[in-house]
Specification:
7-stranded mixed β-sheet; 173 residues; 31% helix; 5 helices; 23% strand; single chain; Rossmann fold
Length: 173
């Protein structure tokens, strides 16, 4: 059994128009939402064995704020291929994981992350599935389990959507 957490980065700032998309930081709302999500993960989920994170500043900033609540000993792999990646590229990053990793968190971007999440769903509570497929807002977290022994077995329709948590569900704006 494997567990997968797909986290979209928190809300980024467009204040400094001289910055390229890759270099945009979080805005105030994004920082607050990251804290809410970090607390939720620490209190309610198994800590990941590994975190895969895009190299974009907004994903790294999201991770930094999450780490205030998670163990600082969780290994992190920054991967430039996760920046604005398509679902097949995101899935390939998961397929490349060692089979000993039981729980992984991926922090990445839409639309690829949302499309990957929707495509993985084989089972799940209908309202939760519908909510995910309607909109995958910034800092939202999809929690999956898959009855597989190796990450290479993860394919479309092979995972169960256990929960979909949005910052607004936790009281964050």
């Amino acid at each position: 059994m494997k567990s997968l957490y797909l986290l979209r980065h928190a809300k980024s700032s467009w204040r400094d128009l001289s910055l390229g998309d890759h270099d945009r930081p979080l805005n105030k709302r994004g920082k607050k939402a990251s804290g809410f999500m970090g607390k939720y993960i620490a209190r309610n989920l198994t800590k990941p064995d590994l975190i895969l994170c895009s190299t974009a500043r907004r994903t790294r900033d999201t991770l930094t704020l999450l780490q205030e609540y998670l163990s600082p000993n969780i290994p992190v792999q920054y991967d430039e291929n996760l920046y604005m990646a398509s679902p097949p590229l995101l899935l390939q990053a998961l397929h490349n994981l060692d089979g000993s990793i039981g729980t992984v968190m991926m922090i990445s971007h839409n639309p690829g992350l949302e499309m990957l999440a929707a495509g993985l769903i084989g089972e799940g509570e209908p309202n939760t599935v519908r909510t995910l497929k309607m909109k995958y807002p910034t800092a939202a977290l999809a929690v999956f389990t898959a009855d597989i022994s190796a990450w290479t077995e993860l394919q479309g329709g092979t995972a169960r959507l256990d929960s979909f948590i949005r910052p607004k569900d936790l009281g964050s704006p």
